[in-house]
Amino acid sequence: MSGGSGERAREVANREIPAHVPVKPQGSILVVARVVWSDGVEEWRAARAVRWTSTHVMVAWKDDEKDPRSERYEWLRAGDVTRSVSWLIPPPERPGAKPAIGATPAT
Predict the structure, then answer these.
(1) What is the pTM of this model?
(2) What's the rounded Cα separation, in Å, for the pair 52 and 76?
(3) Are 40 and 54 in contact (CB under 8 A)?
(4) How far apart are CA 16 and CA 6, in angstroms?
């Protein structure tokens, strides 16, 4: 929600910096982060975990997917972040492919 017209980005109300911050990036793991904005709106958004401790995770996401400069980094409690799992969503069916075990055949 940041833009060039002087408007400020919303603040993350549930951000919390850990007591000991890792200095170097530790990876780039796809996650889903629970973000509570300062206006009270809560959302779960796709992000990347780039640093972490046993209690906190630094996540990164773009406020505007079309603008690479809109990437923001926030520390959240580990309980507000979960790994993103692609196996929950089956891949799209390919024409002529055998149905998956337990799948209902298309009629």
Answers:
(1) 0.71
(2) 9
(3) no
(4) 26
Alpha carbons 32 and 66: distance in angstroms, whole number: 20
Domains of the chain, by residue range, sit at: 31-84
pLDDT in tens, 22-39: 988 899 999 999 999 999
Secondary structure, 3-state, 16-64: CCCCCCCCCCCCCEEEEEEEEECCCCEEEEEEEEEEECCCEEEEEEECC
Which stretch of DSSP H or E encloses residue 81? strand 81-83
Q: How far apart are CA 90 and CA 2, in angstroms?
A: 34
Residue with tokens 């309980």: 79
